[in-house]
């Protein structure tokens, strides 16, 4: 199930996107209070925006804009809105997104072709280990995508390893959707209860929320830990509520594939200009085919690298490498620039660490501080020194480390109304 546009030449893909961009600009100029005011304020003639390269003539849209002018982004009457979702609020107040019936159909199409990237077919059954309620878009997208593809879906929700294994044995799913670190909990439960995980019939896991790969697409420590016990394929998928679109790995597992019929992507530097090929920058998106709340040059805050060479799977689209971190979560620590995922990779090296939280704060002179709160059954000076040595070897710096009870860490990881586990707490202003 590869859409024809994704197999087309790069020139044809670009031409297609430029036609879609013109339609979007015309729509925003008629329907969007926010963008009409933006065009007027900056004296923008939308008819002068004809090519992808012309996007740099337009201002970007930020999360602050969405938070401050949320309702001004809605382009349809309230009676046409079918569903409301909210962002997780990781870096600020949650934002509400409205979806029309056509937007839900687009969401289903997006997830169906994303599942197909990971090898899921109509003959498969998927067990969903994330929530579908609490105004969470991802769970809804997975459900709609499975229906669109014709695959079966089992809506178990997050957590509770016992219930997950009971459902696996009862309904025989072939794929699961989960946060990768939760797969370790499933493995742990299986080992404690004499469950043969490699006889479960699970072929693959589509993983959200945590990276599976290093920057060169090699398996990171989390992936190696899972696959050392469980012989399944792991596929990374990256998405956000604002994008209404997913970037999912194919069987080559060399980055999440771009769907050009759904989204225009730019990778921008600090001056909001495109980075050179192969450089890291902030993913900035323009959504296509959305009725209720389309976005123009929206800065996601995620730092990524784009890969342009053709993939062996037959798709000719660009691919996004692993998310290196959130731009706002960049840390300058003792002269070294860090992102939380790099620290997570170091901590995942230790089997003795049961849970952890990364706290970022500012000290009295305004520089960044890092505190790692760790739960383990081996609170020894030897383990503490091993963790410090590993940080020094991998990242050249050693954060402050504290041991805490597992219940304390879990309470921090799952705050009230949380839809997914929290790993980073940023206290900087």
List keywords for this structure.
429 residues, alpha/beta, twelve-stranded mixed β-sheet, 20 strands
Q: Structural class of the helix and strand makeup?
A: alpha/beta
What fraction of residues sit in β-strands?
15-25%
Uncertain stretches of 5 or more adjacent residues: none
Overall pLDDT confidence: 91
Number of helices: 11
> Helicity range of the residues?
25-40%
User: For the CA atoms, what is the radius of gyration?
Assistant: 22 Å
Shape: globular
End-to-end Cα distance, whole Å, is: 46 Å
Total count of strands: 20
- Mind summarizing the main beta sheet? 12 strands, mixed
Describe the structure.
It is built from 11 helices and 20 strands. Helix 4 (101-117) crosses helix 5. It is globular, with a radius of gyration of 22 Å. By secondary structure, it is of the alpha/beta class. Strand 8 and strand 9 form a beta hairpin. The longest helix has 22 residues, at 10-31.
